[in-house]
Structure formats: C-alpha cells, structure tokens
Amino acid sequence: MSESKLAGQFFDAAIGLLERVRDEEGARIAEAGTAIAEAVATGHRLFAFGAGHSSLPAQDVVYRAGGLALMNFLAVPGTAGVDVMPATLGSALERVDGLAGAVLDSSPASDGDVLVVISLSGRNALPVEMAMNARALGLTVIGVTSVAYAAETRSRHVSGTFLKDHCDIVLDSKIAVGDAELTADGIDAPFAPASTVVTSAIMQAVMAAAAGELAARGVEPPLLRSGNVDGGHEWNGRVMREYGDRIFFRH
C-alpha cells in the first residue's frame, strides 16, 4: 500500500471521527460551553488538566490567540509532556494515588470554578481523583474522554470507577480503545492515533460555544488576539489587566 494512500486513510478516519463527535456530542459541547460562560460571567476561574498526550489539548486552549484568556493549565509536575526523563515517568505518575489532591489543594481552584479534565482512557488514578476532588471542592467538572474504555478495560483506580463517573458533563471523543486508526500488511502494530486531533477539536468547539454564550448574555468574551497582527499586544494587555486576578499563567 502506498504511503499517500495510508495518509489519505488517516485523514478520512479523523474526519469521520470529527463528524461523529459533531453530530453526537453537539448538545453536550454546547452545555459545556454554557458552564464555562457562566463561570466567566460570574467571576470564577477556568482550568484545564491532562496528563501525557492528553495534556496537549489542555495546553492548546491556554494563552492561545483566538482563545479565552481565562483558561489556565492545571499542571502536575512530571506529567505534562515528554520532556521529563525518562518519558515513562509521566505514565507512572498517572497511577499514583493522592497526587491529584495535593495538586488541587495547592492550586487557586475553588468553589464555582470550572475544571476540564482530559483523559483518553479515563482509567488512571490521576484523572479520576482530579475529577473526584474537584467536585468535592465545588468545581464544575467537564470530562473529555473515550467512553469506550469504560466498557472494554478495567479501571486502575481503587474505586473501580472511570473519569466519566465523576463529571458534571462528559464529552465522548469516540476514540477506539488503543487509539490507532490504521492497520496495513507488513506493519505488525496498529498505528496513526487520532485522539489529539479529535480532542483538540472538542476543546476548541467548547471554547467557541462559550464565546457565543457570553456574547448572547451581553458579555464581551475575554479573547486573546495574535501577537503577530497589528494591535494584538495592546488588545491582549487590556484583557490581561481586566481579568488579571483570574489569569495564573502570568505569575
């Protein structure tokens, strides 16, 4: 099979997943956007968390041109990227009990805030406890996960539960267990993961819904502009000053 045909098959698979999410998760994405807009309009804070490759869609909505300035990345040291050495340490930390509670207790997150927890499998202790503890603190929790994992795998948390069991709103990415869209003769393992493409699209769709909801309420969405367009720095400076008490990536 030619390389170009495989590349095309990946695009087809990703587009198919995006269409499924658009059609099947649209109402819940709008609900998540409303929850975020409510937090912005009522003076609360926004946070996003993900570990390993699930951190990428979380980081993608933080300090982002065209995105909400109030979205903060809730970082767990050692789990937010492949720059940690060894890279396998991040995967191991996802299974550590109690880590999420320590992170939340030392964070500015509090009652009335919104936390988006991203975990493809939703089965490890860190995302499960992050959602559990956040709800106990009074946060609204939005989970972005593949619900298929809860049906086809076992939880690694002592409770036997998954991320989806501890969220106010669940957004299903529709990613198949194993996160590999393609197989081919001569290639022993399945390949071409699509979770980052789809989950990032979900996150941006939620942000778009939130911006629309804020505008409908007569609230100017606190959006950032690109620093590479004229006037961008001035615009962003105004937004940062106005909402500085809810923006934590500057401190």
Walk me through what this model shows:
This protein has helices at 3-41, 55-59, 88-93, 99-105, 125-136, 148-152, 195-216, 232-242, and strands at residues 46-50, 71-73, 114-118, 140-145, 169-172, 182-184, 187-191. The chain is globular. The strands form 2 sheets. The chain has a 5-stranded parallel beta sheet with strand order 2-1-3-4-5, with helices on both faces. A two-stranded antiparallel sheet has the order 6-7. It is α/β, with parallel strands linked by helices and 251 residues long. Pfam families: SIS_2. InterPro entries: RpiR-like_SIS, SIS_dom, SIS_dom_sf, SIS_GmhA/DiaA_subfam. It comes from Streptomyces racemochromogenes.
Topology as H/E string? HEHEHHEHEHEEEHH
Give the spatial strand order of the biggest sheet. 2-1-3-4-5
Helix content: 40-55%
Shape: globular
Low-confidence stretches: none
Summed over residues and divided by their number, the pLDDT gives a mean of 95
